[in-house]
Amino acid sequence: MSLPEYPLGSAAASQVDISRPPLPGYSRTTTAVWDVPPAEQEHHFHLTDKKTGAQWLTLTVLSRAESADGPPVFYQGGNIAGSVALELEKEVLIDEVTLTLYGRLSIFSHSTSNFFYMSQTLYSAAEQSPDLPTMSFLKRGKLKGRYDWPFSLRLPKGVSILSAINPDSRVERANYRLPPSFSDEQSNVHVKYTLIVNLNRGGFKAGSKLTVPLTYIPLARPSAPTIIRQLAYQEEHPLVGPDGDPDGWKALDTVKVRGVLFKTIPVEAKCRIHVSKPLSYTRGGPIHLLCTVKCDNPQLLDLLTPQSLRMTLVQRITFGDAVQKARFSERLATQVIVKSYDRANASWWRTPSEDSLNGKTKVFAGELIIPEELVPACQILHYGHEYELAFRGWSVVGFTPNVDSKKPLLTEPVGVVTAFAQAPRPRSYIPPEYKT
Question: Exposed, middle or buried: residue 106 (CB in 10 Å: 0-12, 13-18, 19+)?
Answer without folding.
Answer: middle
